[in-house]
UniProtKB/TrEMBL annotation, chains A, B, C, D:
Listed EC numbers: 1.2.1.38
Name the record gives this protein: N-acetyl-gamma-glutamyl-phosphate reductase
Source organism per UniProt: Tenacibaculum jejuense
NCBIfam families: argC
GO molecular function per UniProt: N-acetyl-gamma-glutamyl-phosphate reductase activity; NAD binding; NADP+ binding
Keyword RNA-binding: no
Amino acid sequence: MMIKAGIIGGAGYTAGELIRLLIHHKEVKIDFVFSTSNSGNPISAIHQDLVGSIDQKFTDTINTNIDVLFLCLGHGNSGKFLAEHQFSDTTKIIDLSNEFRLVNDKVFQGNEYVYGLPEINKEEIKGANYIANPGCFATAIQLAIAPLASKKLITNNIHVNAVTGATGAGTSLSKTTHFTWRDNNFSYYKPFTHQHLGEIYQTIEKFQSESKHQVLFLPNRGNFSRGIFATVYTEFSGSAKEAIKIYKEFYKDAAFTFVADQTLHLKQVVNTNKCLVHVHKHENQLLITSCIDNLLKGASGQAVQNMNLMFGFEETEGLQLKANFF
Amino acid sequence: MMIKAGIIGGAGYTAGELIRLLIHHKEVKIDFVFSTSNSGNPISAIHQDLVGSIDQKFTDTINTNIDVLFLCLGHGNSGKFLAEHQFSDTTKIIDLSNEFRLVNDKVFQGNEYVYGLPEINKEEIKGANYIANPGCFATAIQLAIAPLASKKLITNNIHVNAVTGATGAGTSLSKTTHFTWRDNNFSYYKPFTHQHLGEIYQTIEKFQSESKHQVLFLPNRGNFSRGIFATVYTEFSGSAKEAIKIYKEFYKDAAFTFVADQTLHLKQVVNTNKCLVHVHKHENQLLITSCIDNLLKGASGQAVQNMNLMFGFEETEGLQLKANFF
Amino acid sequence: MMIKAGIIGGAGYTAGELIRLLIHHKEVKIDFVFSTSNSGNPISAIHQDLVGSIDQKFTDTINTNIDVLFLCLGHGNSGKFLAEHQFSDTTKIIDLSNEFRLVNDKVFQGNEYVYGLPEINKEEIKGANYIANPGCFATAIQLAIAPLASKKLITNNIHVNAVTGATGAGTSLSKTTHFTWRDNNFSYYKPFTHQHLGEIYQTIEKFQSESKHQVLFLPNRGNFSRGIFATVYTEFSGSAKEAIKIYKEFYKDAAFTFVADQTLHLKQVVNTNKCLVHVHKHENQLLITSCIDNLLKGASGQAVQNMNLMFGFEETEGLQLKANFF
Amino acid sequence: MMIKAGIIGGAGYTAGELIRLLIHHKEVKIDFVFSTSNSGNPISAIHQDLVGSIDQKFTDTINTNIDVLFLCLGHGNSGKFLAEHQFSDTTKIIDLSNEFRLVNDKVFQGNEYVYGLPEINKEEIKGANYIANPGCFATAIQLAIAPLASKKLITNNIHVNAVTGATGAGTSLSKTTHFTWRDNNFSYYKPFTHQHLGEIYQTIEKFQSESKHQVLFLPNRGNFSRGIFATVYTEFSGSAKEAIKIYKEFYKDAAFTFVADQTLHLKQVVNTNKCLVHVHKHENQLLITSCIDNLLKGASGQAVQNMNLMFGFEETEGLQLKANFF
């Protein structure tokens, strides 16, 4: 018997991706896709690749008896929405916003939101009813740093340069997502102050609580639509071989995170739920590269992965995706 | 029990796509991927999105007892390869080149190759052991024209303007696939003389043998990697409503071809096996738009669709793909 | 002594291009750039490539005693603006909108606007005080058709397929200019009904008034920022050689329009004021390709060319631009 | 009277850019463009934007009596070429390769090659007969670091992350310049070991010889054709205001390098000879951004700038270029 899923904020990027994933998930039936602005319109009129794949319409009414609820609202709106809508006690909730990710924010309405990064938190996720789904940059960067921190090997500042695609900025129109600005362009934003740093520090502290080193993170805007490519380096006294062993060991049971032997490029992961990680040593610097699709492993794919774990489904169900690659 | 598949010409675009599809196909096991130049290398060293997804290596030895053989060789090399390698009588063959597509070429080594366009040839494909898989432009254009021809409504020349991505030109390096040439550029090639016209005329004649009208086809090079967007117009004396009815009727049982109500754009189909078709009438012109992913519905996806039909699998098995969309 | 120029609508694409051109024009001084919304801001804060090149600010006050006024307003706003602002009798006006282009619209406030396509109207432009600057698609398509029409050789319908970049849609944000939509995408709009058809028919009639043939024009949206690539074909009974001779003769004195011997691609003209034209014959079809930069030869560059002619400057002054090419 | 220029290696990117610049330079006449492989072909058959702009052909004969010679050969071939061809004593030479840039390499055939970065070396360049034109990454990065070093304020390691377009890799075809690889992709190469580090350290030492700090430089491949965007950070104890003052002072007389008040994006400089620099302070880190067009300020534009200085022309002559911007 299939579980019933509801999606809130149905017209955005992450909701679209969730729908694309769930229509082929063999354990899940989409019960409703909530969007007040699009209520009554076919879902395929907005998510137009779904012509021929889904006949449902957006709705402005909510079934509070669903098995799983995905909150795909803008940052700051999840708590507000939950305050206004009472769901069944048995409804599990996966929130894609940043509202419940930090330890200080994780209890809401008496419910504890577990940080949903399966590579570092799988057992907790399996037992959870409420998930705070990680941020996209936060996912890529944590997966680059966590193995090192897990061995308490952060001994100096960590330098992070990462670039994200235009879907990272949401569907709303803005100067820097206008095609004539973005096409063949490159820039940075929020230097050293990106809001995902909180999640990243929290994970470092989880493994190496005594670390007081800085993460110097420079986020960039790339002229592509999907994906995050992160380069991370810090001092490391061991050999390349030792480092690679640590990373391979850390991810040996991971369903979607793999340590690649060759240098990475972004399109290896676009339109998949994978995170690929590569480790390189030069003199005393360890350079770790990681790349993900920001909308999948960085958002909706990871949300489905968390759902799979919470409901005891195969972790990879619905997520064996064909890469776009070209 | 899974059938065993072999792939010849394993390092190219279409072979890569086949591998991406078959590793998640529940009825098929990839027995070998043949590539003399890459023999011994991991498949994922060339098709690099497959890191973590496949451990097999390219091979230069061939198992002649497989159930299905996919020929992904350059045009002109399939016959030569088959002349040099003898497969089991029970091995079904799907050739992705243009060698056996035309009526005059369809018998080779005593075997008859069925033209593998399921929308017009499904029953023959189900009974076939040998398939000539259609060309990419030919697929998009035929699917735009066939419904009209099926009603013998081609009454004048047909004007076709279509644009393809850089994967349409194959993996070999050339001036017009160099990034600095192609990026933000546009051009045409082979005006009115593209090699796919033969297949297109053959299908028109199949339905409306008396038609002597020309297909004036202008192929263009677009600055994207995947996809074909084709606009096709010709005179039509009926109403828009009548035309749409003809198209919806023609495709009512199609597994992957759908008539869209809204104007199309290419990314609705990229990384899927779909063909979307749209019909519009202006004065006496009927404008039909069709779009496909040239590597999927235009090549490897259609090859798998044909395989599914030949072996009695679900027609959509392994082809329920998540669109890239962004 | 330099002439004084004023620019109205200063924050848009065409105003930006005008400023980029005029700051290096040796006969012109920019007197003011009018923009109510940006009044007081540095011009280089909006047209950001001009950091280091211009110190002027946008203004909301107008000097009515300038020598030349460029109207870069949205379509429909030029007449309204002129009704509200009285300029000196000696101020020449170049309007970049579509308001005064057609014969029926060309007299406004008692002034006659000359259609500013130098290749067909040079002498009239030289004597004009008011110019209606042609549309971008209209420029590319007319320059492909005019030589043929000039010999009264339009004998059948004309099929036009042309693709424009995202700057063609103006600076305002819209779904189809959002990067995540446009990137690697392709689509068409306004099939057979584009508003530039009026100008195109007007020019055909100028040369071959008895022609009653249709121009079937399909405009497309390409995933690039600048440029128009137009393919135009119609029946032609002469030889390729004869056609080429007609075109070379027609453009032998043109300052910016050249007949190319090789097949064209868009980037040959991007960031220049050129129009390149190529002529090819296949069976009974004559295929003419033309390409321009929509913001230069299709808008601001042609406006400066017109200004040069009106004031007796060198026709190419300020327009010897380095192509971007890559 | 115009000087006569010769260009060696005429079919490549940098030679093409030089030709584009010199045809509009009022003090220079292109005497010959040498290319053995293209000898006899029109220059506009290779540099195809020049149709209508230049009638000259490539040649395989050399006039050794020219005033200035530009060497646009692949790295390692300049010395070889000069050993085989004897030019007049009065011929000034500008070499665009990396062969004579370092102090240890700067004397060749008894001639001393001056490092041609005008912002730090203008007086020497004015008196030079032989110029080693800087590397593209080296130009962007030095212009970000030099003001700080000039005040001996390098107090810690310098972290550099920079991204270059596909023209940075030269015209030869390669996997990573194939459109289907590069489009919408991102990757890095030569981490911490790029060959331009030598030039960068040399310039730091010139100003602050005692500095023993590392430049940790990660070069990236972006999916655009032109441009370099470099972010550079290091510890700085002063205020943002102090830093900005240092930079503005350092560049107050620079012809093409400007300190921008707003955050930068790459397209501000594409198709210009500018370098824009921006300075930002966060906690104890000073973040300096610089961007250039790799083929202009990073190669051919700077070569013309050096020529202007060597011959006493206006420094900006021929280099007042219209940005592409969109």
